[in-house]
Design a protein that fits this description.
Largest interface: A-B, 36 and 36 residues
Distance between the termini of chain A: 48 Å
Number of strands of chain A: 7
Strand content of chain A: 15-25%
Structural class of chain A: alpha/beta
Strand order of the largest sheet of chain A: 3-2-4-1-5-6-7
Largest sheet of chain A: 7 strands, parallel
Oligomer: homodimer
Chain lengths: 216, 216
């Protein structure tokens, strides 16, 4: 059993080292990268579409799309105006630093300012694999329910910002915002929170403003 | 690389053999087990609460709850009237046959008719691990979006029934039912489908009727 644990730690150590290399490579080229994580259907692709359209003209954006199968999300990102790189994980439930290293090889660093990484739809495993991004963002979704911070603590603990999407659905579902926020605060005190609707556009201005600030 | 693949296959083979043992053990005791899978927040616990309340008095039900952390779901199942067994996976993103074997040890086979297994909220990994259940059920959720069969094909391919939850939210979200159903049909032709709302109760009668039929 201890041998098995040792192997797992070695895999994680190797991933972390490679993530640090990815970050160094980005820093040297003056690129900024954001890793967006969420459950399936919380609105990763919708937020990326909105963001790409908003920031087009100010920043050159590349989107790296991780998916178990298909290029649906990458196609949506490309239609929104980004250059898109598709990673088909072939069953893997998360992106890792090796996949990002290979994706970075497909991106023209000279003509890119911002890389948005869309992780695989999963509230568990992506939390354990650093990619080398400068900011890790989690999207929660109102219809998912208010207990998710309590049930998926690793994901909530490690992020730099939390987008709460689909706030337009609040009148139609049970969602105790105080209970939700208490869970978030316990795991990640003071984390930046952006309540938004990617359908109506409500709340997105604060998200764009934050992005422009961190991008400099 | 080939050695690594061989090891993975051996793990899956061992899991499948243990799943077959779990099923044999259930069959010999005359128990029926259902494995419920879905993304986080699609409504696994809500469907189980409704089902336990509906079938109480007809069947003795035990609920096995798989979760990364906390006993929130097991407590909800217990309040609804089931005996509940909590499996904290400690970070694992799916249940496997070993965890179910250990959970079965906690259940009184003589006084139980039906075991409902609530898998970990995840649309990827649970598809790869047989547990020994008689029926595998997937819950889709309207606000997750209509592209999920295309993006998570393994999960849709392997199930015996598909519950489409939160149909009460259809007026408020974009969801092309024809596109969704085309994806489902391609992967799993003729699969039983139950459009329901666990909030309003709409559509649940057909689900209960099916359960009573398979339970005999």
């Amino acid at each position: 059993m201890s041998e098995r644990i040792a192997v797992v730690e070695e895999i994680m150590g190797a991933n972390d080292r490679l993530a640090a290399q990815n970050k160094k490579r980005l820093d040297e080229a003056g690129l900024f990268a954001i890793n967006i994580m969420a459950s399936p259907g919380a609105g990763k692709t919708s937020l990326i579409e909105r963001t790409v359209k908003e920031l087009a003209g100010e920043y050159e954006i590349a989107v790296v799309d991780g998916d178990v199968a298909t290029g649906i999300d990458a196609e949506r990102a490309a239609r929104a105006g980004a250059r898109a790189v598709q990673i088909n994980t072939g069953g893997e439930c998360h992106l890792d630093a090796v996949m990002i290293q290979e994706a970075l090889d497909q991106i023209d660093f000279k003509t890119t300012d911002l890389i948005i990484i869309e992780n695989v739809g999963n509230l568990i495993c992506p939390a354990g694999f650093k990619l080398g991004a400068h900011k890790n963002v989690l999207i929660a979704s109102i219809p998912e329910g208010d207990d998710k911070p309590y049930k998926y603590p690793s994901m909530y603990r490690g992020v730099d910002a939390l987008v709460i999407n689909k706030i337009d659905l609040r009148p139609y579902v049970k969602f105790d915002m105080d209970y939700f926020k208490h869970g978030v605060e316990t795991l990640n005190p003071g984390v930046l929170t952006f309540p938004v609707s990617c359908q109506t556009g409500e709340g997105l201005l604060a998200w764009y403003t934050w992005l422009r600030t961190v991008l400099g």
